[in-house]
Amino acid sequence: MYDQKTILKKIRTKWAGNTVHFAKETDSTNEWIKRLSQNGAPHGTLAVAEFQSAGKGRLGRSWQAGTGSSVMMSLLLRPDFEPQNASMLTLVMGVSVAQAIEKLGVDVSIKWPNDVVVSRKKICGILTEMRLDGMKIRDVIIGTGINVDQEYIAPELQDKATSLYLETGKHYERTDLISLVMEAFEENYEKFIQTCDLSEMLNEYNRLLANRDQQVRILDQKEPWEGTAMGINEQGELLVKDREDRIRTVRAGEVSVRGLYSYV
Hints:
Layout: H1 4-10, E1 19-23, H2 29-38, E2 45-49, E3 70-77, H3 89-103, E4 109-111, E5 115-118, E6 121-133, E7 136-147, H4 164-168, H5 174-195, H6 202-208, E8 215-219, E9 225-232, E10 238-242, E11 247-250, E12 256-259
Parallel strand pairs: 1-2
Antiparallel strand pairs: 2-3, 3-7, 4-5, 5-6, 6-7, 8-9, 8-12, 9-10, 10-11
Helix pairs in contact: 3-5
């Protein structure tokens, strides 16, 4: 178990996570931090919970984890850039989580766009939500869930999901992981806002990309197709060489990408 004081003691950043709100239980950390934002919470506020009764992932899917087994947190940002740039922050957080897990000595990679994977199974999910005031960003909320100490994964998910404990046999201090993620995200975010694209992180992201040089299937609703993933561009789009050797760009949020024979 951890609490607000133990988390704050570990975080050594200028602003990311310097204000921490902790709860043993909440509906979801994203919904909780939206309420904190409405009450004036500053840029960099972090909400952390031991349990979520209504956790959610992309496309409205539910996301659940047992008490004390995961990192469940949401970070509040108040950026001063154009709304169309906000979606790339999901990839910025994905890189940050992967870098943090690497520092624990675990071999990790990213399944485009932002699923952090160990042994080709998902260990982290990220949900980014943006709210606007007119044409300007009011806030961006990045929810991050990391499987840390789970000793059991439901049979129907065992080919797609795992935890740090199941892959290494070790238990990890979640406060250490939170601190490492905040440190990495702060550094990466400050690179991002210089250009409002991923140019400063391109090599690092592509180094971590599990799909790179792999055969993938693009699950386009109109017409699924297959090709070879080449890496991402500065906008975070996946570059895929199709069977006619054309390089096509794939946008996150519009399609899903899978390996030909597995989740990755």
